[in-house]
Amino acid sequence: MSGNLYRALSDGFPDDRTRIAIEVPGGACFSFAALDEAVGRISQLLLDLGVRRGGRVMTQVEKSPEAVFLYLATLRIGAIFVPLNPAYREAEMGTFIADAEPAVIVGQPRSEAMLGKLARAHGGGIVLTLGQDASGSLLDRIDGLAPAPRIADLGADEIAAIVYTSGTTGRSKGAMLSHGNLLSNADTLHRIWGWRDGDVLLHALPIYHVHGLFIALHCALLNGSRVIFLPRFEARAVIAQLPRASVFMGVPTFYTRLLGEPEFGMEACANMRLFIAGSAPLLPETFAQFEARSGHRILERYGMTEAGMITSNPLQGERRPGSVGPPLPGVSVRVAGEDGQAMAQGEVGVLEIKGPNVFRGYWRMEEKTAEEFREDGYFITGDLARIDEDGAVAIVGRAKDMVVCGGLNVYPKEIEAVIDALDGVGESAVFGLPHPDFGEAVAAEVTLDNPHADLDEARIIESVRAQLSGFKVPKRVFVVDALPRNPMGKVQKKTLRERYAETFKG
Length: 506
Ligand code: AMP
Prior knowledge:
The protein is α/β, with parallel strands linked by helices. It is built from 15 helices and 23 strands.
């Protein structure tokens, strides 16, 4: 039996392949036959370009059905998919290309020259382009190609994707996920979330992240379901399509935005079976307001790049606000101190997990990988959690000081490095503050070592914006005389979060 994930996904396609797999409202529509044909032709192109099993196919493209086909083609030939956020800029892309050494890089048409330059600087990689409107060389080059005849036979342990997550040190780590990791998770979620004939997924998530690329799409493909594929989240577009859908997945920000639309209510949700939330904590207020307006109790689940989904509130039974539910079948969880000492039941500690969903390690970082696993195979998530008496997990914070802004992870160290390098800055501390729209917003406290430097809040923000993606740019910068430090010299981020907690409220 082949362990190739594409084999398993395509086994879920309906017998009637004329049924719709992906539909872009007001745009293209692909049947399962058309999807499989496009995937086969892109597979052939990748093979013709010399991409082999284990070779990396990096993408930095806008969301489109063709970008999904490229992902599936990479699986199909046994190469490794490396998705990147289209917001990344040149310096960030250079780091990823140097680290992943891709055989092929597919970028947006406007990035072609930049990617070509980076590929040459970092030892090669063929650059192709794909626009959101299906323009670009990737699709030009599959014109007239016959689909590659076979799906590669693979072991379940072979790597399907490398997804970058940053460390608190700011250095990106590529989490290697195997075909077996992804398939076991997809099979479990398909079952426990009760996917059934006729389900339609409304997809508004980005596809460079685990949530939109793996969790949402794998469930729908395994189920042979139609996916209504929105190019991005836009509350009114979601409300317009909801009556045709039965399943929706979103980050908490999506739900607060839907609640911000006066026309959102029971009527739009009449056909809906399931609303799922994750990637960041769902506020109990949001859960309650959503139930009052729509009649639906959002099912919150918890996961991370390194493990896909880990816990989920139940489909049947109580969905508890503030809880992320028990571990998925086959997944074990425990809570431990920093030293690995088990904590008493109900106490807060770092969540450790084990199961078939847990990744195969960080790409070319053996030592880092070893540090994050216990000897008995448990992975240290870095999330602070409590396990309640009935086995449900509550996430209470992050051991690492990551900020999650609109569902996207921001690692303070990376931004601090950029601010610290500005002429006139003494030092900086970046932290997250509660924000009614984004969940959390990035903020910074900064000291100046030259009081005459021509620097103020606006200039610092502008300088960061020139170097980093928008979601990493601080929304507020507070210039102060000194950062709060403990006697050991460590900056007290907790104090900062408390000091400015009210900044975005009201
Ligand atoms: P990522 O690797 O980008 O998927 O981010 C994973 C991190 O997001 C986790 O380690 C958690 O800190 C956070 N996270 C994901 N889902 C939830 C949730 N339901 N509640 C609280 N935090 C979450």
